[in-house]
Design the sequence.
């Protein structure tokens, strides 16, 4: 899913609210990072002082308040990538799979994005993994797996983490999941391949083909 960089614009607006319109927004590599980490690093690079958790959380809550506005403004630029909704609808109908979010966004931010793009109905939000107070994806993933195990226990045969950044691969490996990389984001096929995911795809295939990839 491409939001038309709505999240970036929301973060930049909050940064200027906090630090002043004339203070340039520092450049950081945000892809695959948690909201907490991004906000922490922006404040740190702007001031040279590591912010407190309270300061980071205030930044993140401000971001949530601005996000919906920017999602709507950038709606024409945003797009659900090919075969994503088809796959979500396909796997939702199967009783042997559960579709959960594993995202660096907060539950509020993730819900906004999914609502705007009409994808919320495909995910079990009550058992999904969100940023909460975590700064790093590995910690977030471990918490998400704990939530799933509490709900389904030994019924979980395998976890799959699907994403388009090296951090998706890293956090998936941290919990023993099979990692599937799809090179439709800012990272190239070659860059993702260097992280050695379980499977790597140039684009998401149609549902039946994707099922074969997963189960073979």
Sequence:
């Amino acid at each position: 899913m491409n939001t038309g960089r709505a999240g970036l614009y929301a973060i930049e607006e909050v940064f200027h609210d906090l630090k002043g319109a004339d203070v340039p927004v520092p450049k950081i590599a945000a892809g695959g990072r948690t909201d907490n980490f991004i906000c922490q690093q922006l404040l740190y690079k702007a001031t040279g002082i590591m912010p407190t958790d309270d300061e980071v959380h205030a930044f993140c809550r401000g971001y949530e308040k601005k996000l919906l506005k920017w999602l709507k403004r950038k709606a024409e630029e945003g797009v659900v990538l090919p075969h994503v909704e088809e796959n979500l609808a396909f796997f939702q109908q199967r009783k042997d799979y559960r579709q959960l979010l594993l995202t660096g966004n907060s539950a509020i931010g993730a819900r906004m994005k999914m609502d705007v793009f009409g994808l919320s109905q495909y995910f079990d939000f009550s058992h999904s993994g969100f940023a909460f107070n975590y700064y790093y994806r590995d910690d977030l993933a471990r918490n998400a797996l704990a939530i799933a195990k509490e709900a389904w226990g030994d019924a979980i045969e395998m976890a799959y983490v699907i994403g388009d950044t090296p951090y998706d691969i890293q956090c998936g490996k941290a919990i023993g999941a099979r990692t599937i990389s799809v090179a439709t984001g800012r990272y190239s096929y070659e860059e993702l391949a260097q992280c050695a995911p379980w499977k790597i795809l140039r684009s998401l295939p149609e549902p039946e083909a994707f099922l074969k990839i997963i189960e073979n």
Observations:
- The mean pLDDT is 97.
- Strands lie at 160-163, 178-182, 199-201.
